[in-house]
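Possible regression after last week's pipeline update?

I re-ran a chain I had predicted before the update to compare outputs. Posting the input and the new output here so someone can diff against the archived version. Not blocking, just want to make sure nothing changed silently.
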Amino acid sequence: MLKSLHIENYALIERSDIDFDSGFVAITGETGAGKSIMLGALALLLGERADSRTLFDPGRKCVVEALFETKKESIEPLFESQDVDYGDDGAVIIRREILPTGKSRAFVNDTPVGLAFLKQLGSRLIDIHSQHATLMLGDNIFQTRLLDIMAADSDAFRQYQADYSSYSALKRELERLTAEEQQYRKDYDYNKFLFDELENAGLTDGEQEQLEQESALLAGTEEIKETLSRVMDICDGEDDSMLARLNSCKSMMGKLAHLGDRTDGPFQFQSLYERLDSCLIELRDIVSSIESANEATVFSPNRQEEVDDRLSLIYRLEKKHGVDSVKELLEIERKLGEQLEATDGADAKIHEVMDAVDQAYKQLQVSASLLGKCRKEGALRLEKELSPILEQLGMPDATLKAHVEHGDSYGPMGGDRVSLLFNANRGGEMREVGKVASGGEMSRLMLAIKSLTSRAGLLSTVIFDEIDTGISGDISVRVGDIMKRMATAMPDTPAIQVIAITHLPQIAARASQHYKVYKGESCGRTTSNIRHLDDDERCHELAVMLSSDPPSAAALQTARELMKRGL
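New output (post-update):
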């Protein structure tokens, strides 16, 4: 239930605070006074897009805030899904701010939320029905959901939605696999060629570096042998070699080695002799290694060609695949292999998913059939319960038929084709409601439907925005009676809050709370204001609506009689 509404700096409203009671609330005012502005403000709270051009003062932000009293079980799951605090008292505070820059912010119980969440939440809190919304009567989705509500079997619809969701997900998976398989098949021959080329190359990680090193050695064979030969000649040549000189040094130092080592000075004769001997041994070993390297360094044109060819192959493959290493080529080879295996195994996976789709479709048919039966029951209940309400609204000969036909295709709403057929006159032809009913008939028909669906307890607040268009006289009294009955708790019907924006005094007189919207002036600007009317003010307002301002004595007397009848 809507408990209060605060509007600040919006359209023609500088600031307004409205407290609502439960039951039937009427809002009246002359044309152009700004009755629709309140609905525009509420629409912001329900997720409509904001526009900075609606600011009363472009230099200040606009704030719209509403307090709702809710049933915990109907709202808490939605709050938990968005990590919004519900609270313990059932209060839900929605606030929307529009900044002068045009940006807007939304909060639910002081938690920032997005517009999508506001729309979800709003659909569970309040139903705003305007005279233009009667066009919904011709909408197939509205007609279908109407029968679901009348059937009072939400489990059948939820089960269908779950089965349809599973079936749709499997179909999407099948389409994805089929598309992938087609693409794989399209690229199979080329990928097989690439894979075979890499596999036949027999690449190994680190191979390129080893080959590049060997190629450098082969290319420098002549220089290497020349360098090794010169070093060998210096170390062990015929003329005054390093080995000969070092051997002479060792022999001379051997003559002093018998003097030993002294601890009282730099006389380490034995140690020096041994060190010279070690150097001689090390140099001979170096000479031997150089000799071996020299003998092993042999220019091989065939090996040079093999290495160069192998490197050319690697470089060509790297360029072809746009990589810089053998390691990356090996990764490409692995992925190509996986794609080829996936192509070979795609048929089995596709057949597996196809079987799952078939099973899901059979289950969908079962749940759709059950849903269709429930809707036919809802159609019968709608026809039965709507007739006396239409008679009360001055259409005793009006007939509404809900036609449910099972189809062979399934969508989010089921597999049924639902149509509402209407005839306002005895013996007339039944035709689609959107094509045959007049504006006044549509308004009364929608009110009758709303009075039925409100019993389902799906919403706690319903707002009628001039739904009384096209009706007058005694019919308007009956419309007011129906709205009042909707807002009254009965043994089998929960009470809901009904707010009616109306221009008919007969309807306003039936309300338990009456607000008047009127124009004013602030700082040289026209403003829109709203205030609660006490009994005297209410009588005066009803009389003005009946006649003129100031009202006649007769109009005041009629207004008092309307108020008595509305009690």
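Follow-up from reviewer: compared with the archived run. Residues 153-372 form one domain. Marking as no regression found.
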